[in-house]
Write a structure and sequence with these properties.
Helix content is 50%, strand content 7%. By secondary structure, the protein is mostly helical.
């Protein structure tokens, strides 16, 4: 009897696997061979997810406008054609306005933020929060960013004679201090103290370097309905308690009238107290807290990764580092030695270096979208059904040799005004594009320009042999950390 039950179970498993993994074949969409039960995922950390998407892009880009993908046993679609991607992100955005990312307002209030919200609520919050990231508001918050450069210099001076410096630590500490003061109005002092609570909480949120943590991440992306029924939380309770306490204390101080700072909290309070959203309710405290939380999380991780990769490339390319340094010093002379808001925007070559870094190492290496309606793809027989999740392979596009010759070579000249104008607008999308692009893009670019210009002006960076070159993504991480770390020798320059 047990033999027949076993044979029956194997038969059912075989049937389920064959049915699950025949979806794209039935639609004549090319797909790389999946492996049951993970599909195209690798929870064991042998290959980074960015590279997995790139494999599909490279295999089928010349043959098709699409590739299929299996997230566990669930089908996903990868658009390979830049014109199709433009339709999804911009032209036909109303059919792809959502990200199917897990959130649970009741049991996990910090998860209900601008990145994960959908439908009318997302539109309302996006409309209300967009004015907080205008040029005028960025200029208002600029002193908070530039104010962290001296602690950064002090940190580099303190540690530069102790051997090569782990620039992940340098950049995450700087990013935490900037986002802490800008998002919550608090002095995190990560550059002054080795151990701080905010860094521990950040590590708690971004810890995906174990098989179980990766499987948990995949589960929430695949079985959202089940997770909500089970009242599961994506964010740890300790993490929620910490950020809720910070935000409550900050709001209490602000509403007492004793403190007034030109930061994100002030702008959020203006939205919360003065504007109604399109669903007829004012922004609640929990909703405001969730937006402050995602501003911290998004600004902390993406900015610090880009900063360390850019510093690494400048350390590896001394001629480019010197060119940035000379540009910074010429601009500083023009502004009497002060790195003003206007001065930062004249650092043209530095911006090209940052853009090239974002091309080679995009923190948002994959853009999530979900079809909100059945959608017939223009000039194609493919119908994308409502609910289908879309993976836009940003890293693969950025490393396409037909778009960027010798894509593994760091070349800021790719982003001269003339070269940018001659490329497809979807060929460089590190912040996404369209109505659902990264709302904090201007803040991130401002923060990066301030930090890197300050470092290069005051210090010489040299890549330490301990750093693996060329830089590779650590396959055991969800994010694109450099495998083995970014180790740089730092030498202070004479004034």
């Amino acid at each position: 009897m047990w033999f027949y039950l076993l044979v029956g179970a194997i038969g059912l498993l075989w049937y389920y696997m064959k049915k699950s993994y025949s979806y794209w074949d039935n639609l004549n969409v090319p797909v790389l061979p999946p492996t049951f039960p993970f599909g195209h995922l690798d929870p064991f950390g042998r290959k980074h997810f960015a590279q997995i998407l790139k494999d599909a892009y490279d295999a089928f880009k010349k043959k098709s406008d699409f590739s299929g993908f299996y997230f566990l046993t669930s089908p996903r679609l990868i658009p390979l054609n830049l014109d199709v991607i433009k339709h999804i992100l911009i032209k036909d955005f109303n059919n792809f306005s959502d990200r199917q990312v897990y959130y649970n307002e009741e049991d996990d209030p910090l998860s209900a933020h601008l990145f994960s919200l959908r439908g009318d609520k997302w539109r309302s919050f996006r409309q209300q929060l967009s004015p907080t990231f205008t040029s005028g508001k960025m200029k208002m918050m600029y002193p908070l960013v530039v104010g962290q450069t001296e602690p950064l210099n002090q940190y580099l001076r303190k540690h530069m004679n102790s051997g090569p410096m782990d620039f992940k630590a340098v950049c995450t500490r700087y990013a935490a201090d900037v986002i802490g003061i800008a998002a919550f109005g608090i002095e995190c002092n990560c550059l002054k103290h080795e151990k701080t609570e905010i860094l521990r909480m950040s590590d708690l949120f971004f810890n995906f370097n174990t098989i179980m943590s990766r499987l948990k991440f995949f589960f929430f992306l695949t079985f959202e309905g089940l997770a909500k029924k089970m009242r599961l939380r994506f964010n740890d309770q300790e993490l929620e308690d910490y950020f809720m306490r910070i935000i409550k204390d900050t709001v209490k101080h602000r509403e007492s009238g004793k403190v007034d700072r030109n930061d994100f909290v002030k702008l959020l309070l203006q939205v919360k107290n003065n504007k109604e959203n399109s669903v007829g309710n004012k922004m609640t405290f929990n909703e405001m807290a969730a937006q402050a939380f995602i501003f911290f999380v998004g600004g902390y991780e993406t900015t610090s990764m880009t900063m360390q990769y850019c510093c690494g490339e400048l350390a590896r390319n001394q001629d480019m580092q010197e060119r940035v340094r000379q540009e910074v010093r010429e601009v500083l002379k023009k502004y009497n030695g002060e790195l003003t808001y206007e001065a930062v925007h004249e650092l043209t070559y530095l911006k090209q270096c940052i853009d090239e870094t974002l091309r080679m190492y995009p923190p948002g290496f994959n853009l999530f979208r979900a079809a909100t309606n059945d959608y017939k793809v223009p000039n194609s027989s493919l119908l994308i059904p409502k609910g289908m999740q879309i993976f836009i392979p940003v890293y693969a596009i950025h490393m396409d040799p037909e778009i960027y010759p010798n894509p593994h070579i760091f070349d800021p000249e790719r982003f001269s005004a003339e070269n940018v104008q001659n490329r497809h607008p979807m060929a460089h999308i590190p912040f996404g594009d369209g109505p659902r692009n990264c709302i904090g893009m201007r803040f991130a670019m401002m923060e990066l320009a301030v930090a890197i210009s300050n470092i290069v002006n005051n210090f010489k960076l040299t890549l330490n042999p301990r750093t693996q070159t060329p830089f590779k993504f650590d396959p055991k991480e969800i994010n694109i950390y450099p495998e083995g770390g970014m180790w740089i020798d730092v030498q202070e320059l004479k004034a």
